[in-house]
Amino acid sequence: MNKLLPMIAVALSALPLPATTLASESAPPMIVELTQVPCQFLESEYDRDHGYRSTNIKDCEAINARTAAERLQKAKTLELKPGKYIFRVTNRNVPYELGFWLRGAGIAGRVTLPSVSGGGLLTGKTQDYAIELTQGEYLYSCPLNTTPDYKLVVK
């Protein structure tokens, strides 16, 4: 009887994996859509457009110096599960080039969480930023539109 156990194990290992296992390994990335308007991300502030006007980065720096702390207290924290994501970011009516920066929260140089960044987001354009997120706390913002640092938690 003991001679049969290795043969049974080999036979079982030749069986195809359940479809759910294969599907989860090859699942497409989840898409997170974000919209930038002058000095803010809409979704992060519960789709409330504050109506800020900006013709350059200095305008947003001044606006956010006055308003960011209070707005961040009320802002939505994105909560996601670990996995592959595409952050689909749209520049809605900001009259200059924007970007996107997602990185681990914490002291610079001490965080090893994944990050993604890029520019080239002209008025009316939508751009994708792909990343595989691991458990931890992140921040996302636009340094070219000078938005606040919004929170994202992966757990």
Task: Walk me through the topology.
Layout: H1 4-13, H2 19-25, E1 30-37, E2 40-41, H3 57-74, E3 78-80, E4 83-91, E5 98-104, E6 116-121, E7 126-133, E8 136-141, E9 150-154
Parallel strand pairs: 1-4, 3-9
Antiparallel strand pairs: 1-2, 4-7, 5-6, 5-8, 8-9
What does it look like?
- There is one protein chain.
- 23% of the residues lie in helices and 35% in strands.
- It has a single domain (25-154), classed as Cupredoxins -  blue copper proteins (Immunoglobulin-like).
- The longest helix is centred in the middle third of the chain and has 18 residues, at 57-74.
- Strands 3-9-8-5-6 form a five-stranded mixed β-sheet, with no helix packed on it. It has a four-stranded mixed β-sheet with strand order 2-1-4-7, with no helix packed on it.
- The radius of gyration is 22 Å and the shape is globular.
- A hairpin with a 2-residue loop joins strand 1 (30-37) and strand 2.
- The protein starts with a helix and ends with a strand.
- The protein has helices at residues 4-13, 19-25, 57-74; strands at 30-37, 40-41, 78-80, 83-91, 98-104, 116-121, 126-133, 136-141, 150-154.
- The chain contains three helices and nine strands, in the order H-H-E-E-H-E-E-E-E-E-E-E.
- With 155 residues, it is an alpha+beta fold.
- Residues 4-23 have low confidence and may be disordered.
